[in-house]
Design a protein that fits this description.
Helices cover about 45% and strands about 20% of the residues. By secondary structure, it is α/β, with parallel strands linked by helices. A 4-stranded parallel sheet has the order 2-1-3-4, with helices on both faces. Helix 2 packs parallel to helix 4 and helix 5 packs across helix 9. The relative contact order is 0.16.
């Protein structure tokens, strides 16, 4: 008889069609994924900040399912604030539910540090203004940004694998210790290990880092097939 080892809770913007899929792929048949959606159809600063105010209520409903851990999966919303302030939604969710909480933006920073990667290049689907905020966030968190490129699209999930691979290659620099690919609605899981072999350095992506953080919070230190060096080395 199959037994689920863990129940993972996700809070995602309503237009996100990638995070649940990628997290469930990483979870395989041993863990189940349960999600709540918050209305969101455009990446404006006002909308992204509003998402964070709705996260504790969504988490309270998730807690009815007795999930083992909850992740607030809007990476961009966290980057609008500093690397201390972005943890506020997670603290409020933990207070409301009593569950361990990961926040995608903080999970990425924790993942890069765990890999010893303080010089990073950035790839995203974001508009220039949001990439600038991402750069500011990482700089404030102690990282050095070697290169950055966005696609200036809000149709994140429709970007092809080939274009994402090209984008990662475009931002790679010899001095970069890792490439961070931002956005939980950006399909990256299928190319992480391919690009790591091609470039010879870790790829850290929003959904992969969120899954890594969720598992580590509940004491699960396994390496997941296809999820890259982050799981094997951190």
């Amino acid at each position: 008889m199959e037994t689920r080892q863990k129940k993972l809770g996700l809070i995602v913007p309503s237009w996100n069609t990638v995070m649940e899929y990628e997290v469930q792929r990483m979870a395989g048949g041993e863990m189940s994924v349960h999600s709540m959606r918050i209305p969101h159809t455009a990446d404006t600063e006002e909308n992204l900040l509003w998402l964070g105010t709705q996260a504790p209520g969504a988490a309270t409903l998730l807690s009815h399912a007795k999930v083992d851990v909850i992740c607030y999966g809007c990476a961009a919303g966290g980057f609008l604030k500093g690397p201390v302030e972005d943890r506020a939604p997670g603290s409020k969710i933990a207070e409301a539910t009593g569950a361990p909480v990961a926040v995608s933006s903080s999970a990425v920073a924790d993942a890069l540090r765990a890999l010893g990667a303080m010089r990073v290049s950035l790839a995203s689907p974001y508009a220039p203004w949001l990439n600038d905020r991402l750069r500011q966030y990482l700089t404030a968190a102690g990282f050095e940004v070697m290169a950055m490129q966005g696609l200036d699209t809000q149709n994140h999930s429709a970007v092809t694998t080939e274009r994402i691979e090209a984008l990662i290659t475009e931002v790679d620099r010899p001095e970069a210790q890792a490439i961070f690919v931002s956005c939980s609605n950006f399909p990256t899981l299928g190319i992480i290990e391919t690009m790591e072999r091609r470039l010879g350095k870790p790829i850290v992506a929003s959904n992969q880092a969120s899954m890594w953080k969720m598992l580590r919070l509940v004491g699960d230190r396994r390496a997941l097939p296809g999820a890259g060096r982050l799981f094997r080395e951190a």
